Amino acid sequence: MSFSWTDITLEEKRRALEELADVKELFASRNWFPGTSGNLSIRIGDFQPEQFYFAVTASGKDKTKRTAEDFLFVDPYGKAAEATNLKPSAETLIHCEIYRLTGCGAVFHVHTVFNNLISEYYGEQGSVPVQGIELIKAFNIWEENAAIHIPVLPNYADIASIAKLVPGVLNERVPGILLRNHGIYAWGRDVFEAKKHLEAFEFLFETTYRSLLLKSSR
Questions:
Q1: Is the model's pTM score more than 0.90?
Q2: Please, what is the angle between helix 191-216 and helix 113-121, to 10°?
Q3: Structural domains for the chain
Q4: Most exposed of 55, 62, 82, 217 (fewest Cβ within 10 Å)?
């Protein structure tokens, strides 16, 4: 069945914008958007691999403030779905690729000190190894002493070049990708799950960083 922008209801749009505003406010209170960085998105309506829409944070906005021009709606290619003066972040292309490949319901991207330090430390390896930390269970991984590898992609200036690399590193067990010395993209079936995954990743990054410091001080 075909699906188009006109199939999206006003209620779906309103709900998506409210959810984005709430989660943006929460993450801003944690200082996860320094200098207008980061971007958040929520998919709306039905999903088909090449036919979907999502609400995303507008480029260059102060995310500590709540205004009527914080978000816009885009299509599967990151283009505005309706007339607007707002501009999506160039990084919206990465959101597009994650939605297309996973069918998820929300994608959150934030910049923190710990995800920057860890992504740089393990950048040459191409992934961050994590094992035996309780918060791995947030990804529905329950085995004893579980181990995961969180992908790290190069932080090219050309965002389209990064987006092309996403399919090669996706792992259905690990709902996140780091950009080296940049930030984390985390996703989930809905806002709640994407938020849970992002918080778990940030805990893992801080724990890993502090563990490295302890080992180096011995």
A1: yes
A2: 60
A3: 5-216 (3.40.225.10)
A4: 217
Please state, as a whole number, how many other Cβ atoms lie within 10 Å of the Cβ of residue 190: 14
Burial class (CB in 10 A: 0-12, 13-18, 19+), 173: exposed
Ligand-binding site membership of 182 (annotated): no
C-beta separation of 71 from 63 below 8 A:
no
- Is 95 labelled a binding residue? no
> Residue 55: which residues within 8 A CB-CB, separation 6 or more?
13, 16, 17, 20, 41, 42, 44, 71, 72, 73, 74
Strand-pairing partners, residue 92, are none
CA 187 – CA 94 distance, rounded (Å)? 12
Three-class SS string for the chain? CCCCHHHCCHHHHHHHHHHHHHHHHHHHHCCCCHHHCCEEEEEEEEEECCEEEEEEEECCCCCCCCCCCCEEEECCCCCECCCCCCCECCCHHHHHHHHHHHCCCEEEEECCHHHHHHHHHCCCCCEEEEECCHHHHHHCCCCCCCEEEEEEECCCCCHHHHHCCHHHHCECCECEEEECCCEEEEEECCHHHHHHHHHHHHHHHHHHHHHHHHHHCC
pLDDT digits (tens, 9 = 90+) for 114-163: 999 999 999 999 999 999 999 999 999 999 999 999 999 999 999 999 99
Closest CA to 159 of 88, 216, 93: 93
